[in-house]
Amino acid sequence: MKRLIALTIAAGALAGAAHAQEIVRGGNPQSPIASVVTVPAGYDMVYVSGMTPPVIDDKATGVARYGDTKTQTLGVLGRIEAALKSQGATMADVVMMRVLLVGDPAKEGKMDFMGMMEGYKTYFGTAAQPNKPARITSQITGLVADGMLVEIEVQAAKKK
């Protein structure tokens, strides 16, 4: 009986230790992204579909309808933040991000990576929210509406 109790306590301790593990984010601390993120057991995954920017001027056409890349990035990240909140998660829980950028006509058809980064850095790697996700950023030829320059999807992990 004593042996059974000891085994039960040991199993409970191991389960507690496994559940107590934290997400590990690795890579150069100076980088704006994590080069690797490990999510241990004990987390629920939240998948947020690609979000596009909100309209900022419904009378405008093209890029002016949604704003420049930084403005669109901020709008998309705001939408992602709301989606995560609806699932009990926050931007600090984001572990993977995929960013799609359309070439900006004002930049000779090249993606405005720096504009996206300006918006991104307001949400990630800050003093208030230091967590950074793993990320990929790609230039694509177009999105669902003329003038959209940014679409972002994320995966988040929150403790059970």
UniProtKB/TrEMBL annotation:
Signal recorded as keyword: yes
InterPro entries: RutC-like_sf, YjgF/YER057c/UK114
Keywords: Signal
Gene Ontology molecular function: deaminase activity
A single cellular component GO annotation: cytosol
Signal peptide, first to last residue: 1-20
PANTHER family, A to Z: 2-IMINOBUTANOATE/2-IMINOPROPANOATE DEAMINASE RIDA, ENDORIBONUCLEASE
Protein's UniProt name: Uncharacterized protein
Species name: Caulobacter vibrioides (Caulobacter crescentus)
Taxonomy of the source species: Bacteria, Pseudomonadati, Pseudomonadota, Alphaproteobacteria, Caulobacterales
